[in-house]
Amino acid sequence: MRTTTLDDFLQGLQDKDLRRELLFRESRPFFVLISQQFSRQELENLCDTATAIRRMDRRPDGPQFLRGVLRDYRVMNLFAQPSTRTAESFIAAAEKLGATSRLVTDLQTSSFAKGESLEDSVRTLSSFFDIIVTRHQDEGFARRASYALSKSGRPIPVISAGSGKSQHVTQSLLDIYTLRYSFAERGGIDGKKVLIVGDIARNRAARSLAYLLTKFKVAGIHFVSPKDFSPDDDLMDYLVKRHGIHVESSTDLGEALTKQGTSIDAIYMTRAQQEWDSDQGKGITGSSPSYVLKEEYRDLIRTDCVIMHPLPRVNELPDSWENHEGFVVWRQVRNGMWIRASLFATIFGADVEIRARAKREGLIGRRGQPVGDTGQAHLF
Ligand code: CP
């Protein structure tokens, strides 16, 4: 590794080739920090592995095989911010593969409270664990942890499970997996137009998904956000200048759907990120009407339009949408466990064997296409 300082490491993440050198070991992800780090082929492999694990888990001898994949591995989940889905799905994913997990949610119970540096803390944890999964309000936390470990004599992988307002990489992986499933009989994600609604500037799930959509030949991304929380220049430059993605922006969901509703293939709703307000969300009120998917919009979109939300939700996606044909929010939740199991398997080099076994058993197609995924929701 060429870097010598933290600044070099952080700078290196902006460069496609250096990033690969910094974040991968032996062509496998080692530090999972930003969505952009994955290639299209790696995403397809992660999705195929997730499908293989999901389907094997339903086979008579599948769970036993899966529990042997990471037997004796130990996962440290260090979550400094609240989480229901991400933390528990990482734990469930580890259990599916036979690994054990610890979850630390109050960093004040650790020696951080005595002033121990992040660097010393993660190096200590690397003596007892095989991987660290971390969520933190500081977007640099996982990056600094990764840098410290990369310079240590005993590096272990790090997965960011949400970093500040910046990125939520594993959420975007499960979102891509869910989109791929949803469009399995409509030519996949290529050619689709995705509408992303909410507080884009402060929503790490929305941002990570937008970054990951550049790996596909999408017809376009349409952001609907309040002016003050529109996509920042970094994200727009990456989408438009670097990847030539057709991006539209507007400030009112009703107007956007009135003009273009039938051309939208997927709507990704998100909540207002009021925990970042000056009162730290004490006055959470939810989204203003312009960013709520109102019942009356049903007539403006196609019945096969996919409706997604990373959750948690407040008022922006009413329960009444659950009977819409394209509503896949609970599938997203379940997919979180499968894609995170796939990510663990990939990091530790077990994915090839899992996919090979799944192919032999006819659970996934030879070229990786998910056999019969569509219309088989009971298999999820
Ligand atoms: N989607 C998501 O990150 O949910 P949690 O905050 O509950 O983990």
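^ phosphoric acid mono(formamide)ester complex. The longest strand covers residues 74-79. The longest helix spans residues 329-347.
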